[in-house]
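Input set for joint prediction.
Command: fold jointly, output tokens.
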Amino acid sequence: MSSQERSAPRRRNPRGQGQVLKAQLVDAAAKLLSTLDQPETLTLRQVAREVGVAPASIYSHFPDLSALIQHVLRLRYEELARLMDQAAQSAPDPLVDLVARCAAYVRWGVGQPGHYRTLFGGRMPDDLVPGSAHGAGAELLEAVVTSLAAAAEGERKQPSAEQQWQAGLMLWTALHGLVSLYNDHGNIPWPPLDDLIADLLSLHTARPADEIAALLPQCGDAPGLAPDSI
Amino acid sequence: MSSQERSAPRRRNPRGQGQVLKAQLVDAAAKLLSTLDQPETLTLRQVAREVGVAPASIYSHFPDLSALIQHVLRLRYEELARLMDQAAQSAPDPLVDLVARCAAYVRWGVGQPGHYRTLFGGRMPDDLVPGSAHGAGAELLEAVVTSLAAAAEGERKQPSAEQQWQAGLMLWTALHGLVSLYNDHGNIPWPPLDDLIADLLSLHTARPADEIAALLPQCGDAPGLAPDSI
DNA sequence: TGACATAACCAACAGTTGTTCAGTTAGAGG
DNA sequence: CCTCTAACTGAACAACTGTTGGTTATGTCA
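tokens >
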């Protein structure tokens, strides 16, 4: 079924509008990356088939397949970062900020398993992952670290910078492990996701779980993709 | 360099010893799986080249490539399970049992990044991962759950079965996230692994970190692979 | 020594992939 | 109308994949 030939031979774009094919290619690649079980088996010809275009036409817009994939990944990465910032921007205090940020992370990852796996699940060829040069999601990690540190302000014992770093790191690993396993092993009986998020943050902030749960934004709050963008 | 032709045409095995090639194939596949960045790109011909044998010769020992990979994964999985059991078998109390078990898990995963990613990275086709049918490491998970529950015995509040399950699940996700990110993002400044393990278990058992750290078995304790098995 | 089953090979198949390059089409500007 | 060029195509390339059928070498046993 995936090898179906295109029925409509796809009208060529008008003169100045060569960019619309580029956008279509990006969308198709994103869709395929989110669909495929193994992201790195994405194929140039799959993208071409999806759009209904000759494989060679891609080379007018991207130097090669790596560039196309890298472009898609950069977009997804920026989308996640933007979502997390948006979720936290109106937080009245650091704890709410932290909760909103982490909830956005987990929900994005669970909502887009293919994209999450592509970005954070294992190593893509080094030059493909955006931010890999500066640490593969370093901005996200640092945001979590500072947010957690701010939320832990006012504890009776001031942690050192190393302790703050380690605490943030462990929070991120916990979030990542939750998303990864939740996505990849749907057959084991998972509790409701919000319970897990609340429990996880409760552990890492030393606050009671119900206090965290009360701070969790509603599911509909997170601004997602525009439905027509894919 | 990986495409080097074999120089010695490989002496054929004597009469009853057809099984030694099978073992060599398994070893070669294991080595390649642990080496490759993307496990699912393992190729029948790569294995054949590694051993120095014609691609067709593999079909005398395995019905197809999937069977070979599945066999290797099953061996690795059983190895991990055995290591965890061995590590915990002489534990005087449940907390030591839990610590030893988790430490063995993390150390095995960190010591064998390729194998860990292959087993738990969630990118292999479903039928390849052993235990996927009954929950992808369900035995390991259940061992952790019961171990954690036993270690939490004597707390002032007895948790329900659901709470025990959720707590074990979260511990496993944390362990998995730690191993995954530690393996895949070596460029970010990680604290010593034992500190992370102790801190993680401290969080999940509500015990002070130094108490946990004192229970951590020495690194040399874990019986690893025989050096010549690969 | 001869027969025979085992162990492994050789060559080929049909399919896939990324990439290149010489073309073709079509629409906008003169 | 003509021309030019952006937009795209078709065909081919070399390399790679899993898999197969037929073939050869080799050790063992009678």
